[in-house]
Amino acid sequence: MSPIKFLTRTRNGRSLDWTDWMSYAYLTVGLFLMFGPVLWLVASSFKTEAALTEFPPSLLPYGQKAVAVPGEEKPKPVYRVKLPDGTTKELPEVRRIGLVATHVDPAKPEEFIRVNVNDREPVREFRLATENYTDLAGKLKFGTYLWNSVFITVVATLLTLLFNSMAAFALSKYKFAGRKGVFLLILSTLMVPPAIVLVPNFLVISELGLLNSLWGVIWPAVATPTGVFLLRQYMLTIPDELLEAARMDHASEWKIYWRIVLPLAAPALAVLAIFSVMWRWNDFLWPLIVLSKNEHFTLQLALNAFQGDLVTQWNYLLAMTVITLLPVTIVFAFLQKYITQGIASAGVK
Amino acid sequence: MKSSTARTPWFFLTPNLVIFGVFTFLPIAINLYYAFTGGVQLYPKDRPFVGTENLATLLDCGSYLDPASCKKDIFWRAVWNTAQFSLFQVTVMVLFSLITALVLNRKIIGRGFWRGVYFYPVLLSPVVVALIWKWILQREGVLNAVGVAVGVPQTLWLAEPGWAMFWVIFVSIWAHMGFYTLILLAGLQAIPADLYEAAQMDRASPWRTLTRVTLPLLLPNLLVVLVLAAIKAVQTFDEVFVLTGGGPGSATTFVVQFIYQTGFQEQVRLYGLAAAGSLLLAVALIALTLLQLKISRAEEAGERAR
Amino acid sequence: MASLELKQLVKEFGSGASMVRVIHGVDLQVNDGEFVVFVGPSGCGKSTLLRLICGLEDATSGDILLDNERVNDKRAADRGLAMVFQSYALYPHMTVYQNMAFGLENIGTPKAVIEKKVGDAAKLLRLDALLERKPTQLSGGQRQRVAIGRAIVREPKIFLFDEPLSNLDAELRVSMRSEITGLHRRLGATMIYVTHDQVEAMTMADKIVVLRAGKIEQVGSPLELYNRPANKFVAGFIGSPQMNFVPVHAGHGDTIVTAHNASFTKPTQTRPASGTELTLGVRPEHLSLQAADGALALPMTITGVEQLGGHSLLYGTLPGAGGKDGPRITAQVAGQVSTRIGDTATVYASADTCHLFSTADGETVVR
Fold first, then answer.
1. Buried-most residue among A79, A236, C51, C273 (CB within 10 A)?
2. What is the pLDDT of residues A177-195, one digit of tens each?
3. Buried/exposed A49-75: b ≥16 CB within 10 Å, e otherwise
4. Mean pLDDT of all residues in B136-161
5. CATH number at residue B134
6. Subunit contact A40:B135, Cβ cutoff 8 A
7. CB atoms within 10 A of CB A111
8. A111 lies within 8 A of chain C by CB
9. C182/chain A closest Cα distance in angstroms
10. Does A241 touch chain C (CB under 8 A)?
11. Is the pLDDT of residue A166 over 80?
């Protein structure tokens, strides 16, 4: 088979017709539009502060080349210098006064060459400005923000799994008066947009003394109608005979839930766990209201506060944005199948 | 069940119900109370009852079509901005979601990958989405670089009201269309393959197959997606808030931002006014939800008649 | 090991207008060490009866006595019974060993004792090599044995089986049948077994309980049920192919007259009045192509023939009133036959193999 034929063959063995070409063209444009902006963000986050202010921007991160000069502490920036004899040479700058820059050849450090700044241009090389990331560690309480985000995400997800699976267990495995009513009541909370109860929820949180506490973000989030619904639907497929067998085996109701139903609902729990991690990691409006003190900020809040500063330090902001989207991206890359299946089956996000 | 086990389900339900009660149902009740009380006190018992004053303030307008003639002109600007945004965002997004879903439903190589491409932005946080685009749209951003290269003058995309609204809609579609694509794709895949085979045997052209088989069968999903998208669009806040801050001026201020600003950002926090605003938003959302219920009822009835 | 007694047991589901009574006052005695089979068509209440005994359902009224102690208010786990479920209900996330040990762990049995008991049961059921496997890695028959093993380790007073063989293929079902009865002999335990398959009931039971619509139709040994069915329902339910039923009426004296005016003599204890409508029942295997003295002649129009080599099945109809087809008849005759479809063949039933039922209520008039 010729390579062209191989590349253009479709799933059913026909070769491509014009509609197929249109489809792939559409998808390729989509790929560029959907991934392009994110890739641009990532590429930009590796540029130096100086490179970020360039216009037009370079596609890939470039930085000015620097070399060590004997007798100097730091590496010095390299310029392509037009020498008086008409030749050009790449030489590091040792100092600059006004329009006159002093260069030196590292091979002959005793010899200084003075040139006008207009007679030279910087030498650039491909360089990843990893300092944008490494500097973050000590800056801006970045570690605190990261910890806050991780703490909220992990604790809220664990509690979500526990509470929602308990409710789903009750709603799927017991017959009791009011079961349908409770289920509808829980589902009805899907209809209540968080924006509407913003003000009174603020009151409730402050009355409970949870203002400016990470728990103030966690508690309201751990009962989700989506989670209850998803888990209940799954638990309905677990045969009741298993529970009866366990009851005959002297298992308490809690043990039936913990040892039989929970392990068997693992696939649905995994889907909910992925969702919950995404929700909590990305939360913005609610933490914005509960957490007003800088040391309680999550990454999302810190990003927002940081971008609103008068002088935006884009190099750090971009690096922080990349770190913020990293976990979600990793989760997505590995668990795409579960996420898309979960959404397709539950119809909720 | 024995009487001793009759309490068991309630034991398992308690944590969930307590949380829903405290953080959803109780706030709904308090919100109603807030909406009819005034002052700047947070605690309900400190707040004087003012009846429908808050609602009246919001609804006091010379002409609803002209926000400048309203007592709370910013609220009505937000209402019209939200309406304009929702109209364009929902229609364009659902259209592109549909096209994408149709393309993804073809026999293409690497469907999972392509589906992931469109879905990925859905998972990004609103803040991240806004920052990604802020970086692209800024004065020295890559869009202006490309623009200058092809002869478009350098533009402050987010500083001109018309462009700001355009980009807010664009970014919102970019961030959310993957979700609706996925739902429509699931709908498409639920259409039995033998229907397409039958259409093929009936010598239907691809276009007729699309308009006479695929789209009619997808219609229920399409309607659900439309209403769902509208419910979300009306509540848009965070990504716009980070991207434009509601500006320039109030060109991209939406209703939820009005509620947030009135209740939390102003020097004088008018909780009553914010609550009244959310009450009006709730009315709009309930209307949309009822519309959805009506559509799904009509669908059921139609199915029974078929 | 224990005895069981049910007294006027009633079970109702729902309440008010939607209330359904599924068990109508059942009385039953199960003796120590007996293998009792509940059999009946689907919906007869046999599974419900089993679930009442084991405590998974609460009785509406009546008593359940285990070793003469009323256990109605005891929880299922505390009644000391073990159940083998239709779907086996093996915990899919646990190994065979964990499945069998789970119940013992729950009551705090020491680890060494659990190991011993599970090991013994595994040896008995030839599961020793499979202890570390998960249920999904087992064949149907193996899963069945694990389910039984889980019951054995608990050393229950009574073993309860809820249609345990219905998920197996025909061949496996036959071998598991003898395996379960063999187990019963070795353990000497009381077992109650629910099935809708009368062959299982006939081959396994010491005592069969035939149920219909929540009532007991007859209790007896397999051969009692076969030879002396209490009514038309039991007669039709037990035996395969099913018993033939022919409408007849009582003639003068002890004569019985069929619709096609054949007659024979059959003494009855309670002689029905002449002209009383009766139903004659005769099993296919009791019909013969050879004429015999005093036998009832049944002239069949053959509609189907099945040659099975060792014996043959003839399907046909008797002449009915006004030239219409009469009742259908199946005859099982020894050897091979040359009869063809459309032929008329007369089969003979000797009087002592014929059963007579009252047409009015189905009760046996004479056997």
1. A79
2. 888 889 888 887 877 777 7
3. eebbeeeebeeebbbbbbeebeeeeee
4. 84
5. 1.10.3720.10
6. yes
7. 9
8. no
9. 24
10. yes
11. yes
Q: Do C91 and A248 touch (CB under 8 A)?
A: no
Give the C-alpha separation, A145 to A302, whole Å: 7
ipTM over 0.85: no
Which domain does B148 fall in, by range?
A: 74-305
Please count the CA atoms within 13 angstroms of the CA of C183 that sit on its side-chain side. Answer: 20
pLDDT digits (tens, 9 = 90+) for C305-358: 999 999 999 999 988 766 677 889 999 998 888 888 988 889 998 888 888 888
Query: Looking at beta carbons, which residues of chain C come within 8 Å of B1?
Result: 58
Q: Where are the alpha helices (DSSP H) in A119-252?
A: 131-134, 142-173, 179-188, 198-207, 214-221, 225-235, 240-248
pLDDT at B2 over 50: no
* CB proximity B6 to C under 8 Å: no
Q: How many domains does chain B have?
A: 1
Tell whether C13 and C126 lie within a shared domain. Answer: yes
d(CA C284, CA C270): 26
Contacts of B222 in chain A (CB under 8 A): none
Kindly report the nearest CA distance between residue B183 and chain A, in angstroms: 6
What's phi and psi for C348, nearest 5 deg?
-120, 140
CB B52 within 8 A of CB B58: no
> For residue C296, what are the domain limits?
244-366
A239 — contact with chain C (CB < 8 Å)?
yes
> What pLDDT is attached to residue A8?
47
Q: Is residue B63 part of a domain?
A: no
Which of C84, C87, C98 is the best substitution to test chain A (most A C-beta atoms within 10 A)? C87
Question: What percent of chain B is predicted at pLDDT more than 70?
Answer: 96
Q: Do C226 and C257 share a domain, yes or no?
A: no
Asked if residue C239 belongs to a domain, the reply is no
- Is residue C243 over pLDDT 90? yes
Say how many CB pairs under 8 Å bridge B and C.
4
Q: Is residue C237 part of a domain?
A: no
**Cβ of residue A340 closer than 8 Å to a chain B Cβ:** yes
Query: Which of A58-72, A181-195, B143-157, C40-54 has the largest mean confidence?
Result: C40-54
Domain identity same for C250 and C182: no
Q: Is the pLDDT of residue A7 over 50?
A: no
The band of B197, judged by pLDDT with boundaries at 50, 70 and 90, is confident
Is some CB atom of chain A closer than 8 A to the CB atom of C13? no
Beta bridge partners of C247: C279
Inter-chain touch C56–A239, beta carbons under 8 Å: no
Search chain C and give the residue with CA nearest B5: C75
Assigned domain for B48 exists: no
Q: Is residue B9 assigned to a domain?
A: no
Q: Does the beta-carbon distance from C77 to A264 stay under 8 Å? A: no
Give the amino acid at B180: Y
Question: What is the distance between the alpha carbons of residues B262 and B260, in angstroms, rounded to a whole number?
Answer: 6
User: Rounded to an integer, what distance in angstroms lies between the CA atom of residue A90 and that of residue A95?
Assistant: 15
Which pLDDT score is estimated for B198? 81
- Residue B11: list chain A partners with CB under 8 A: 170
Percentage of chain B beyond pLDDT 90 is 18
Give me the number of domains chain C comprises. Answer: 2
Q: Distance of alpha carbon A113 from its chain centroid, rounded?
A: 49
Do C217 and C275 lie in one domain? The reply is no
Domain boundary, last residue among C231, C255, C284: C231
Is C75–B1 a contact, with Cβ atoms under 8 angstroms apart?
A: no
- Residue-wise pLDDT for B54-109, tens only, equals 887 878 777 777 777 777 778 888 888 999 999 999 999 999 999 999 999 888 88
Beta bridge partners of C300: C345
Instruction: Please give the pLDDT value at position B171.
Output: 95
Report yes or no: B1 at the C interface, CB cutoff 8 Å.
yes
Nearest CA in chain B to A173: B9
Residues C50, C178 within the same domain: yes
Q: How many CB atoms lie within 10 A of CB A299?
A: 26
Task: CATH number of the domain at C296, please.
Answer: 2.40.50.140
Give the percent of chain C with pLDDT over 70: 98
Higher pLDDT, C116 or B151: C116
C214 and C357 fall within a common domain: no
Count of CB pairs separated by less than 8 Å, A with C: 55
Highest mean pLDDT among A63-67, B66-70, B205-209, C239-243: C239-243
Residues of A in contact with C93 (CB under 8 A): 263-264, 266
Residues 29 through 58 of chain C touching chain B, CB cutoff 8 Å:
58
